[in-house]
Design brief:
Strand content: 25-35%
Strand order of the largest sheet: 4-1-6
Largest sheet: 3 strands, antiparallel
Number of helices: 3
Number of domains: 1
Shape: elongated
Structural class: alpha+beta
Radius of gyration: 23 Å
Number of strands: 6
Length: about 120
């Protein structure tokens, strides 16, 4: 299983006063993604977990394109960085051991059944 994370250092968001921004990942809308109330000079580093469809899109397109539309918002916002990270989960050793023992047990039972 794969998972991904997008970290964004952002600030100045006042969505309720100035309106929502439109955000897309590789052309797919992300409703209410940047709906924050930081205040005029507030900043925060936020983490967004990427769903399976977004990760598939990133792999298919060899990258992530983020489009931000003002959508008639008059908000003065700022971004410092965007960091995309991800990893592929590997089964832990205990899970692999259980799978191996189970497979061996099935082989033994099958062999005994064929001898009868």
């Amino acid at each position: 299983m794969r998972f991904g994370n997008l970290s964004v250092d952002m600030g100045g968001f006042q969505a309720s006063q100035f309106g929502q921004l439109g955000v897309t990942y590789n052309g797919v809308g992300q409703p209410n993604l940047f709906n924050f109330q930081d205040g005029a000079f507030g900043t925060a580093v936020r983490n967004f977990v990427l769903n399976a469809a977004t990760i598939a899109s990133i792999n298919a397109n060899n990258g992530l394109t983020i489009r931000i539309s003002r959508n008639n918002s008059n908000d003065a916002i700022a971004f410092d960085y965007f960091r995309l990270s991800g990893e592929q989960r590997v089964p832990e050793p205990a899970s692999m051991l259980l799978l191996g023992v189970g497979s061996a047990a099935l082989s033994v039972f099958r062999a005994r059944g064929l001898r009868k």
